[in-house]
Amino acid sequence: MRAILYCYIAAYLLFAMWGLIEDVRYKEPWWSIVTDLLLSALALAGMILYAFDIRSATLVSTWKVVSGVLVIGQVGSNIYDRHRIIAGQDPSVDAARITRRSIILSDLFTYALIAPALILNLVYAYF
Q1: C-alpha triplet 87, 108, 80: angle, nearest 5°
Q2: pTM of the entire structure?
Q3: Got the DSSP string for 51-102?
Q4: pLDDT of 63-73, one tens digit each?
Q5: How many Cβ atoms are within 10 Å of 42's Cβ, its own excluded?
Q6: Alpha-carbon distance 17 to 22, whole Å?
Q7: DSSP label at 1?
Q8: Residue 41: C-alpha distances to residues 1, 16, 61, 81, 84 (Å)
């Protein structure tokens, strides 16, 4: 089970790095890049804390707030990105060629990739 966890953490790290590189490549707003960087770093930190069972009372107490901010921030960031795609404001997507179905499938794929990270952070904080 630990091997699966470590593999997921590595995959998450690669996915987050790819996302940040794409943000820079397509000249996303600086605050969007910083938001993605902070959310990715927090999620990664929480998964590492969980994986290595680092459980000081202060850290776990703090992570209750951090994990909530992480979930709200990630969902908010994804909603904002989808709004930009639908409005045709995302330079990485040709708005004339994309369908709502592909946007929904893209959202589901993204949530499937990040859901374990969010769940692991919540489990670390609350269980």
Answers
A1: 35
A2: 0.86
A3: HTT---HHHHHHHHHHHHHHHHHHHHHHHHHHHHHHTT--TTS-TTT--HHH
A4: 999 999 999 99
A5: 19
A6: 9
A7: -
A8: 23, 9, 18, 19, 24
